[in-house]
User: What shape does this take?
Amino acid sequence: MHVLIIGAAGMIGHRLAARLGAQPVLGGESVTRMTLVDMVAPNAPDAAMPCETVAGSIEDAEIRRRILAGRPEVIFQLAAVVSGAAEADFDLGWRVNVAAVQALCEDIRRIGYSPRLITTSSVAVFGGDLPDPVPDTHHLSPQSSYGAQKAVGELILADFTRKGFIDGRTVRLPTIVVRPGAPNAAASSFVSGIIREPLKGERAKLPVARDSRVWIASPDLAVASLIHAATLAPKALGAAAVVTARGLTVSVQQIIDALAFAAGPEVAALIDDEPDPAVAAIVGSWPQGFDSGLAVALGFPTDDSIEQIIARHIAEHHPHLAQAE
Amino acid sequence: MHVLIIGAAGMIGHRLAARLGAQPVLGGESVTRMTLVDMVAPNAPDAAMPCETVAGSIEDAEIRRRILAGRPEVIFQLAAVVSGAAEADFDLGWRVNVAAVQALCEDIRRIGYSPRLITTSSVAVFGGDLPDPVPDTHHLSPQSSYGAQKAVGELILADFTRKGFIDGRTVRLPTIVVRPGAPNAAASSFVSGIIREPLKGERAKLPVARDSRVWIASPDLAVASLIHAATLAPKALGAAAVVTARGLTVSVQQIIDALAFAAGPEVAALIDDEPDPAVAAIVGSWPQGFDSGLAVALGFPTDDSIEQIIARHIAEHHPHLAQAE
Assistant: This one.
């Protein structure tokens, strides 16, 4: 089985490639070849199989031709212009998040084979007055260009899937915690920051109240959810071809308590409450929990707890801390 | 005020142009000029104001340039590839119902003015297991390419509107009854046919059970709903920039009874029950009623009754029958 990962240099794509390199199996079938593409050439993972790496954008028809040339049976489409960038650059967001993905689907249709195409969406497709928890069938009500683009992407993939041109599966992912790297301008940045920075001995700002609730999943859970989606029977997701992954709803205080439990109160004390009304307003507009009935029924995995998420982050990034306990 | 009607040769566009020609007022402002465009040149209505007519498609950048050249303050975008055609020709539907409309919005954005743009959507954005009545906030769940395209169009217009590039208002219209002209291949064709053909002394086929319910509006109500949408304050429709118009839910038997009441039992006897399971299945999948809370709150008009709809159709198309009573 030939697997194509678009966006393979990103946090999730990189991790997914590593997972398939280390365990080259997808739903009982062997992964025998990978093609990895991103704007910058992705690193090939440790893997016995041939891994082609390609630098380029799926906006480019020649890149699309090249990555589809081997007729990959499974395509993970993870390339996206993220929330803040899509809001700042209207053209870029619609071009990459919608037009390029639609062009990819069109190219596949014209080739005339119907691969599995697994892609991600976001809780940003929901907004406004939200019930708690948000049901699988809540109406698409995006309040940002990113959310609108992801909602449109869901509908386009569903129609290509209904017509049999593609076997599409969209997975709406929670806020990923703990993101590696530096803090960024995303309103959600603090959720990873209040874990990641203190563990490095650095101070972290908390812009929201400690009783704020967020809906999260670990990077491993995101990868496991995408792999699970890839192994479902065709049409398992129904006409909408979309499923909301299983996240955890936790309060900021629960995150801080779990950090203190794992690394000590002196680490948790590195978090500074610095309320930022703008960030608090954005975070407050997000869904805080989902009734993931469809994901549960389809056997999607879930993280056990925020304690487990933090323990795994420590084991991966701070093995000396894990050993010290 | 300069009004542009795209799709001005169609049933609703034609009627809207006639209405604005006869009563050149929109929300208290005078309509002083109209531009009418369709694939075939529309007939200019009886009107004192200048009416430019244009033959062409909004897929054509030069046509878009031409119809936007006068910076129309109000644009009614009624051009669409209809349900059956969009399902039969996947490319055509996505090109006209989505890409061309998005290109129009892009052109407006690049010009840099923000006109009111009123367009239509359909109950085909809803499908699957539907509550009865369907609330304004039911999730987009199209089961056809036409429905998917209309849902995508709603989301695109909402995002252009949120960003202030356009002042968009989408109106989801019921099945229009009585459509003029000949029966067509649409599954909904019979709803008009069982009124229109018997009134002409011709037999009509009824492919569904008489207790089937349909959600309908008159052509005049469709026009009145679009005009009402054009006169709303900006942002009145909320973030989604869409409203479901006020239709009537009636059973087929109620339609037949109303026809017999208006034109006599011998006219209603021209309807032949000829069950067609395929048509019955499609009609059964449609929403049968809506909770039009938003439309009611915003003062949208409604038809009084199926009796009134039939009486108006008779007055317009069979004045001798109306006089004979």
